## 1
Amino acid sequence: MLIHPWDAALGADEWKSWLAEGRDFGQLIAPGSGRDLPVVVPTHFLYGGGERIRLHLARPNPVWDAFEEHPRALLTVIDDYVYAPTEWVANEGQPVEEAVPTSYYATLQLSCDVRLIDDPGEKAQILNVQLGHFEPPGSKRLPVLPDDRNLPGIRGIELTITDVRAKFKYAGNKKAPVRARIAEGLAERGTAADRRALGHLQRRHPLDEG
């Protein structure tokens, strides 16, 4: 992943806060050993801070062999993505027809050590935390006990983050007047993703900066 200096995370607090504030779905990529292509699993997960992420997957999932071969994974998360048309991003004095449209987005690539979990008590704990996050209040599915009849059908995964590549691409290479135009366009278009992107742009690159 290409990360220009102006798109790099401002520090660990930025990416940790972004991940913890509701990002709970991504792609778990298991390289295995000697494979032509990795195993890629779209999955929910839950991050509670620190360096660990926990999740569970069904036993028939093809990822287990890859983890047994090599207990490493890459978890990728992408959100707050928007398209910025040519009219927004043209530099001052640049003909619009010569400008290059782009996309703005936030993404993490988390390199992780993998620990597989088969202990019923630990699996129940993972489910209680995940279901507590996703299920509506008062869900009859909670609590999950270690003797729950569904537990044999899943395995737990604990990811320990060992390296992070974090990118927040929000017009950091543009001068203030162009950023103001982009911000105006995002506000006017006004989708939920536009509002989140606008928040990133204003937070990372205040319009009163050059």
Note: The radius of gyration is 21 Å.
## 2
Amino acid sequence: MAFPRVVLPLLLLMPMSGLAAQQAEPTRLVVQEGGREIGREEFTLQQSRARGASGTTLTASARYPANQPATQLGAVLEWGPEWSIAKFQLEVESAEGTTVILAAGSGARLIVRTVAAGSESGRELPGGPDVVLLDDGVYSLYAAVADLATSAGRRLTAIFPRTGKRASFTAQRESAGGGGGVRTNLSGDISGTLVTDAAGRLRRLELRDRNITVTRQE
């Protein structure tokens, strides 16, 4: 298929290692399934974007398991004003090789491109202000969910670019107590609770449907 040019600038993104080296001290997360640790994640959340554009940039890396990992993931996601998706890059390294997934928003469309050894594919998906990009191995991406949530509950659609999975859910936010944190209750295809701090960084995530708990390493 002929791929829209909106995605081409994503190929100019700096390597993951170079971006991570420019970030401040990362926040560290421990990922557990059924009470057993299965991996670790580190991320930074920066209130700016490449080339000085307004918005927010999340840079993350994850390892499964933490020691001698069989799978390693690196993600960079740039949000524009009001958490619109500007650029997304996910790099997955495993025994099968390296796969790179690129995505960009263009109005009501989301353009996704997947590049692996010897293959390349692209697809166009519905986008818009109620769409978030998530991944089953990079949990810091849930920061956008907390920011888009409302006290009355907001209906959102999650797209998982690595697998192509879609999920519809409601995100309802409430105060998490002192310190300006926010607790977000998730119901629907994604169920659980999400707690972020005053800076919007993930502090705790519980996904009841997957028996996953993600906690900040203090």
Note: The two ends are 47 Å apart (CA to CA).
## 3
Amino acid sequence: MKELFTRDKNNPILTADQWPYRINTVFNPAAAMLDGETLLLARVEDRTGLSHLNVAKSKDGVKDWRISEKPVFTADPQNYPEEHWGVEDPRITFIDELHAYVITYTAYSQNGPMVSLAKTRDFQNFERLGPILLPENKDAALFPRKFGDRWAILHRPYQGERDAHIWLSFSPDLKHWGDHQVVLHARSGAWWDAGKIGIGSQPIETEMGWLIIYHGVQQKISGNIYRLGLALLDLEDPRKVICRSNEWVFGPREDYERNGDVRDVTFPCGAIYDQKSDRLRMYYGAADTAIALATAKMSEVLTYLKSCR
């Protein structure tokens, strides 16, 4: 049977060897369109072991990347102590009402990872909005518009040995968050997404609902495997789950996904949907070492999800 997502023949499309300064790895990029070009805001781990964010731009979103000569977003622990051990895994949402891109990212504090926000219009100048969710919490992404008079965010709190689910929270001002509730549960037992799941890219609005790409972590004797599944949330009430895939739809297969700093990881933080061409581009971290691209037809993705009701 044909797979939903097709790996790009140029994979991996970005590696540490292409970087203009010395780094260890580059992975887990957020994605957006800026001035007609594809922009990736990538997590870059340097040789201290800490991470910062940097920009890569491409006209076709596949090759001929132009990478900023220096990091565009680095940890600032003196003014933002929650960033003591770096900044990681961004997601980008363009919000029309604010005329700006809002970035959710993991601020790695001494007390564990937590969710912070920043705002930008050009990916050169950033306004930090500060931490919004307490540790341990990560894998957060904003919806691009309000529901009623409240913003909404998906995130993944984690408490030790307990299962880690995807939660939904609401805010009147992007600072004070409440009405916390689980929207997607991790399954149990031998399922591919048992015990621990988390949001992948930002929610994508479609005619059928909000497309959610999420990762599930299956624990094997040889180690964890990070695979991807799909769900749809109601367009007007994201607390309602319309459907969810039982099977994983994408997972580690190629050498660059199976071998690296962390084995067997496919981990998207950004996706771009072009409605005219019906093309969904998913940018993902491969084995916590490089960036790769897979594409799908949105119509086929939605047809598949209809069968998952």
Note: The longest strand covers residues 210-220.
## 4
Amino acid sequence: MRELLAVKDWSEGATAMRYDAKVVAQPDLRLFDAAWPPLEAEPVSEGGRKSAWYVRCGQNDAVLRHYRRGGWAARISVDRYIWTGADNVRSLNEFDVLRSLYEAGLPVPRPYAAVYWRHGFTYRAALIVERIPDVSTLASALNVADSEQVARCIFAMHEQGVWHADLNAYNILLDKEGRVWLIDFDKARRPVLSLERRSANLLRLRRSLIKVAGAHGLTWWDDLSRSYMQLTRAVGM
């Protein structure tokens, strides 16, 4: 896997792209342009802040996402972030976290390519990842989801040293075979994952489940929490 393809484009500013050379045989900035016909782009209807598309990436089904701000920050800029160096670019960081988890065998989408466009003191960014077929969100499949399996998946992520910044009922997916997938690792970090930090991550999921399913969501989370705590005791935490 090649690490970095750097391209100078004086009309757009400095541009850098990171990609999986086994998937992206011919790196091209048009891969991130939903209007480019070969992508066969279709907007993602749920989530994505109207900046995500289902696309073709070579021979693979993929998801293209342009990074966009939410909340109050979007009033200042919809898609520009403060430049503090390439090491802090959100798309490259998410690509690297996903790659490490994917290579460790965790159920996350394989990252295909990431890019940023720098404009002076700001930058824009985009990411392309594998599309997981025939999936439902945990929020919509709570009645059939196995809380122990979800707990094991989150525990495995934590054991890899990754803290998910937005662990909620929409970023956990179940495929038609019941397998659990974790998605959306924007702003994921690799801090020292104490039991307290792990618990805080789980409590974010708890708030999400209560919001989408009320008392049933809380009961389901209680089962997940017990399974997770059993896993921590098994490794002597």
Note: Residues 1-11 have pLDDT under 50 and may be disordered.
